[in-house]
Amino acid sequence: MNRTLLVTASLAALLAAAPARGERGPSTPAERRKAVEVTRRLEREPLARRAAADRRWLLQWIVEIPDIQVRGCSGPLDPLAEDDGGRFGKILYVQSVFGMAVYQIEHPRSADDWLAVQTAGVESVLRAYRSLLRARPQARWDELDALLAAQRRGRLAALLEQAMEGCDEPAGPAPGDAI
């Protein structure tokens, strides 16, 4: 649990002061479209000039809205959140939050399927990672290379299910609870 809190606390660096959930109504269709668009753009261009502003908007929006719940869970992305070596680990880690939110937007009937949501988050990270490596080949992560290999073999969801055992329990904090 301490590791989960440490990992989730790293998200706090992206927000100055997030308002508590419940201060606003549910997300609007326009906001959900924008969230999907911004997430996909961050996957394609994680180092774009406007990427930092996009990440701040998206994370704050996810924290504020009551209708999309993203739960933190300790797993194979944890080393990214602890990165202080300049390999872009923290921006890749937070990409998982965006991917999980977009999955819930695009698959509202599956929003309670923790494995599908977590897998979507990791897949979003992997798309951003591939884009990042095209621009900065030295930003390689062994952990992400292993996840890419599992994805190529069609074993990503199985690997995540095993590595993130217990994530389906109501223990992991949502960003709004952790910040």
Structure overview:
By secondary structure, the protein is mainly alpha-helical. It has one domain (2-178). Helices cover 59% and strands 0% of the residues.
Strands, helices and their partners?
Elements: H1 2-9, H2 29-44, H3 51-64, H4 78-81, H5 89-106, H6 114-135, H7 142-152, H8 156-163, H9 175-178
In short:
Helices cover 59% and strands 0% of the residues.
The backbone outline, from C-alpha atoms, is globular
Q: Which regions contain 5 or more consecutive residues with pLDDT less than 50?
A: 1-21, 170-179
Count of individual domains: 1
Helix run count = 9
What's the overall average pLDDT, rounded?
84
**How many β-strand runs?**
0
Distance between the termini: 15 Å
Gyration radius, rounded: 15 Å
Helix content: 55-70%
Give the strand content.
Answer: under 5%
In N-to-C order, the SSE pattern is HHHHHHHHH
Structural class: mainly alpha
Q: How would you characterize the largest beta sheet?
A: none
Q: What labels describe this entry?
A:
179 residues, mainly alpha, disordered N terminus, disordered C terminus
